[in-house]
Design a protein that fits this description.
This protein is of the alpha+beta class and 235 residues long. It has a five-stranded mixed β-sheet. Helix 5 crosses helix 9. The longest helix is centred in the N-terminal third of the chain and has 14 residues. 34% of the residues are buried.
Protein backbone atom coordinates (compact mmCIF):
# COMPACT_ATOMS: atom_id res chain seq x y z
CA UNK A 1 0.00 0.00 0.00
CA UNK A 2 1.54 3.33 -1.04
CA UNK A 3 1.60 6.45 1.14
CA UNK A 4 -1.49 8.04 -0.39
CA UNK A 5 -3.49 4.84 0.12
CA UNK A 6 -2.32 4.73 3.75
CA UNK A 7 -3.62 8.28 4.25
CA UNK A 8 -6.95 7.47 2.56
CA UNK A 9 -7.25 4.39 4.75
CA UNK A 10 -6.91 6.54 7.88
CA UNK A 11 -9.39 9.12 6.52
CA UNK A 12 -11.94 6.41 5.74
CA UNK A 13 -11.59 4.87 9.20
CA UNK A 14 -12.01 8.23 10.93
CA UNK A 15 -15.05 9.08 8.76
CA UNK A 16 -16.68 5.75 9.64
CA UNK A 17 -15.75 6.03 13.30
CA UNK A 18 -17.25 8.11 16.07
CA UNK A 19 -14.98 11.11 15.41
CA UNK A 20 -16.42 14.54 14.41
CA UNK A 21 -13.94 15.20 11.60
CA UNK A 22 -14.37 16.30 7.98
CA UNK A 23 -11.52 16.47 5.48
CA UNK A 24 -10.33 19.16 3.07
CA UNK A 25 -7.16 20.19 1.26
CA UNK A 26 -5.04 18.23 -1.21
CA UNK A 27 -6.29 14.75 -0.32
CA UNK A 28 -9.90 15.76 -1.01
CA UNK A 29 -8.85 17.56 -4.18
CA UNK A 30 -7.01 14.44 -5.36
CA UNK A 31 -10.13 12.33 -4.80
CA UNK A 32 -12.18 14.81 -6.84
CA UNK A 33 -9.59 14.85 -9.64
CA UNK A 34 -9.51 11.04 -9.74
CA UNK A 35 -13.29 11.13 -10.24
CA UNK A 36 -12.64 13.38 -13.25
CA UNK A 37 -10.14 10.98 -14.79
CA UNK A 38 -6.79 12.37 -13.61
CA UNK A 39 -4.01 9.87 -12.98
CA UNK A 40 -1.82 9.88 -9.88
CA UNK A 41 1.25 10.95 -11.89
CA UNK A 42 -0.61 13.99 -13.25
CA UNK A 43 -1.17 15.51 -9.78
CA UNK A 44 1.30 17.07 -7.36
CA UNK A 45 1.83 14.69 -4.42
CA UNK A 46 1.27 15.53 -0.77
CA UNK A 47 2.43 14.12 2.55
CA UNK A 48 -0.19 15.57 4.87
CA UNK A 49 -3.92 15.48 5.54
CA UNK A 50 -6.02 18.59 6.20
CA UNK A 51 -9.03 18.23 8.45
CA UNK A 52 -11.59 20.11 10.54
CA UNK A 53 -12.88 18.93 13.95
CA UNK A 54 -16.46 20.03 14.64
CA UNK A 55 -17.90 19.82 18.16
CA UNK A 56 -19.98 21.89 20.56
CA UNK A 57 -17.11 22.06 23.02
CA UNK A 58 -13.53 22.62 21.77
CA UNK A 59 -11.53 19.44 22.52
CA UNK A 60 -8.24 19.12 24.33
CA UNK A 61 -5.29 17.77 22.37
CA UNK A 62 -5.16 14.62 24.50
CA UNK A 63 -8.85 14.03 23.75
CA UNK A 64 -8.18 14.31 20.00
CA UNK A 65 -5.24 11.89 20.19
CA UNK A 66 -7.24 9.35 22.23
CA UNK A 67 -10.19 9.50 19.82
CA UNK A 68 -7.98 9.03 16.76
CA UNK A 69 -5.89 6.27 18.32
CA UNK A 70 -9.00 4.34 19.35
CA UNK A 71 -10.31 4.34 15.77
CA UNK A 72 -6.95 3.27 14.34
CA UNK A 73 -6.62 0.45 16.87
CA UNK A 74 -10.17 -0.76 16.18
CA UNK A 75 -9.33 -0.94 12.48
CA UNK A 76 -5.92 -2.58 12.99
CA UNK A 77 -4.13 0.40 11.44
CA UNK A 78 -0.61 0.31 12.86
CA UNK A 79 0.08 3.99 13.49
CA UNK A 80 0.68 5.81 16.74
CA UNK A 81 -0.86 9.29 16.88
CA UNK A 82 1.01 12.14 18.61
CA UNK A 83 0.51 15.87 18.56
CA UNK A 84 3.34 18.29 17.87
CA UNK A 85 1.34 21.55 17.80
CA UNK A 86 -1.66 22.69 19.80
CA UNK A 87 -4.33 24.81 18.14
CA UNK A 88 -5.12 28.43 18.92
CA UNK A 89 -6.18 31.69 17.29
CA UNK A 90 -5.33 31.38 13.62
CA UNK A 91 -3.34 28.20 14.28
CA UNK A 92 -4.29 24.64 13.43
CA UNK A 93 -3.49 21.56 15.50
CA UNK A 94 -0.61 19.44 14.20
CA UNK A 95 -0.60 15.64 14.47
CA UNK A 96 2.02 13.03 13.59
CA UNK A 97 1.06 9.54 12.43
CA UNK A 98 4.05 7.38 13.34
CA UNK A 99 5.03 3.82 12.43
CA UNK A 100 4.56 1.51 15.41
CA UNK A 101 7.61 -0.44 14.25
CA UNK A 102 10.14 2.37 13.88
CA UNK A 103 8.53 5.36 15.61
CA UNK A 104 9.19 7.45 12.49
CA UNK A 105 6.59 9.94 11.29
CA UNK A 106 4.95 8.61 8.11
CA UNK A 107 2.64 11.57 7.48
CA UNK A 108 1.11 14.51 9.33
CA UNK A 109 -2.30 16.12 9.77
CA UNK A 110 -3.15 19.82 10.08
CA UNK A 111 -6.51 20.16 11.77
CA UNK A 112 -8.65 23.23 12.32
CA UNK A 113 -11.15 23.28 15.16
CA UNK A 114 -14.73 24.35 14.41
CA UNK A 115 -13.90 26.31 11.24
CA UNK A 116 -17.13 27.16 9.35
CA UNK A 117 -17.87 24.83 6.44
CA UNK A 118 -20.01 25.27 3.33
CA UNK A 119 -21.04 21.63 3.06
CA UNK A 120 -19.58 18.14 2.78
CA UNK A 121 -20.06 15.10 0.59
CA UNK A 122 -18.64 11.59 0.46
CA UNK A 123 -15.69 10.80 -1.80
CA UNK A 124 -14.36 7.37 -2.73
CA UNK A 125 -10.86 6.36 -3.77
CA UNK A 126 -10.74 2.62 -4.41
CA UNK A 127 -12.32 0.98 -1.38
CA UNK A 128 -11.78 4.04 0.84
CA UNK A 129 -14.82 6.27 1.42
CA UNK A 130 -14.56 9.45 3.45
CA UNK A 131 -16.29 12.74 4.24
CA UNK A 132 -14.81 15.83 2.56
CA UNK A 133 -15.73 19.44 1.83
CA UNK A 134 -17.48 20.37 -1.41
CA UNK A 135 -15.34 21.59 -4.30
CA UNK A 136 -16.69 25.14 -3.98
CA UNK A 137 -15.04 25.40 -0.57
CA UNK A 138 -11.74 24.16 -2.00
CA UNK A 139 -12.01 26.91 -4.63
CA UNK A 140 -12.92 29.56 -2.06
CA UNK A 141 -9.95 28.66 0.14
CA UNK A 142 -7.45 28.62 -2.73
CA UNK A 143 -8.64 31.79 -4.47
CA UNK A 144 -8.57 33.62 -1.14
CA UNK A 145 -5.01 32.39 -0.47
CA UNK A 146 -3.55 33.47 -3.82
CA UNK A 147 -5.28 36.86 -3.70
CA UNK A 148 -2.75 38.01 -1.08
CA UNK A 149 1.04 38.23 -1.12
CA UNK A 150 1.05 34.76 0.41
CA UNK A 151 0.80 33.57 -3.20
CA UNK A 152 4.60 33.26 -3.38
CA UNK A 153 4.46 30.74 -0.52
CA UNK A 154 1.24 29.16 -1.83
CA UNK A 155 2.34 28.07 -5.28
CA UNK A 156 0.61 24.76 -4.62
CA UNK A 157 -2.74 26.59 -4.60
CA UNK A 158 -2.03 28.07 -8.03
CA UNK A 159 -1.21 24.57 -9.29
CA UNK A 160 -4.39 23.14 -7.80
CA UNK A 161 -6.50 25.85 -9.45
CA UNK A 162 -4.83 24.89 -12.74
CA UNK A 163 -5.99 21.30 -12.25
CA UNK A 164 -9.54 22.39 -11.41
CA UNK A 165 -9.67 24.69 -14.42
CA UNK A 166 -9.36 21.60 -16.61
CA UNK A 167 -12.24 19.62 -15.16
CA UNK A 168 -14.69 21.81 -13.22
CA UNK A 169 -16.85 24.64 -14.51
CA UNK A 170 -16.85 27.16 -11.67
CA UNK A 171 -19.96 29.03 -10.59
CA UNK A 172 -18.31 32.24 -9.38
CA UNK A 173 -21.36 33.49 -7.50
CA UNK A 174 -21.62 30.21 -5.60
CA UNK A 175 -17.92 30.39 -4.66
CA UNK A 176 -18.33 34.01 -3.53
CA UNK A 177 -21.26 32.92 -1.35
CA UNK A 178 -19.07 30.20 0.18
CA UNK A 179 -16.36 32.77 0.89
CA UNK A 180 -18.88 34.88 2.76
CA UNK A 181 -20.25 31.88 4.64
CA UNK A 182 -16.82 30.64 5.74
CA UNK A 183 -15.20 33.98 6.54
CA UNK A 184 -12.95 34.08 3.48
CA UNK A 185 -12.44 37.02 1.11
CA UNK A 186 -10.52 37.93 -2.02
CA UNK A 187 -7.86 40.63 -1.64
CA UNK A 188 -6.27 42.64 -4.44
CA UNK A 189 -4.21 39.91 -6.21
CA UNK A 190 -1.24 42.31 -6.36
CA UNK A 191 1.39 39.58 -6.21
CA UNK A 192 -0.43 37.33 -8.67
CA UNK A 193 -1.04 40.09 -11.24
CA UNK A 194 1.89 42.49 -10.85
CA UNK A 195 4.84 40.31 -9.81
CA UNK A 196 4.64 37.50 -12.33
CA UNK A 197 8.42 37.03 -12.61
CA UNK A 198 8.70 36.61 -8.85
CA UNK A 199 5.80 34.15 -8.93
CA UNK A 200 7.45 32.20 -11.75
CA UNK A 201 10.66 32.02 -9.71
CA UNK A 202 8.71 30.59 -6.76
CA UNK A 203 7.02 28.13 -9.13
CA UNK A 204 10.30 26.91 -10.58
CA UNK A 205 11.63 26.29 -7.05
CA UNK A 206 8.54 24.26 -6.12
CA UNK A 207 9.44 20.58 -6.37
CA UNK A 208 7.17 17.82 -7.62
CA UNK A 209 8.13 14.56 -5.91
CA UNK A 210 7.44 11.00 -6.97
CA UNK A 211 7.73 11.48 -10.73
CA UNK A 212 4.62 13.64 -11.04
CA UNK A 213 4.38 15.84 -14.12
CA UNK A 214 5.19 19.53 -13.58
CA UNK A 215 3.35 21.68 -16.14
CA UNK A 216 4.95 24.71 -17.79
CA UNK A 217 4.48 27.88 -15.72
CA UNK A 218 3.10 29.98 -18.59
CA UNK A 219 0.35 27.42 -19.19
CA UNK A 220 -0.50 27.25 -15.50
CA UNK A 221 -0.55 31.03 -15.06
CA UNK A 222 -2.63 31.72 -18.17
CA UNK A 223 -5.28 29.11 -17.40
CA UNK A 224 -5.59 30.14 -13.74
CA UNK A 225 -5.84 33.84 -14.60
CA UNK A 226 -8.71 33.10 -16.98
CA UNK A 227 -10.36 30.67 -14.56
CA UNK A 228 -10.49 33.17 -11.66
CA UNK A 229 -11.18 36.25 -13.81
CA UNK A 230 -14.47 37.01 -12.02
CA UNK A 231 -12.51 37.53 -8.78
CA UNK A 232 -9.77 39.75 -10.19
CA UNK A 233 -9.92 43.57 -9.88
CA UNK A 234 -11.69 45.22 -12.78
CA UNK A 235 -9.30 47.26 -14.90
Amino acid sequence: MNLEDEMYRVMAALSAGDVPVDFKGAMVLHAFLYEKGFSETAIRPTRDIDANWLSDTPPGMDEIVRAFQQVLDQNHILFTVKYFRTYGDGKSAGLDFCSQDTGNTIFTMDMDINRPEAGVRFYAVGNFRFRGVVVEQILADKISAISTDKVFRRVKDVIDLYYLSQCFTMDSEKVKAVMSQTGRSAAGFDGFLNHVEELEHAYEKFRFAGGSEKPIFSNVYGKVKTYISDFLPKM
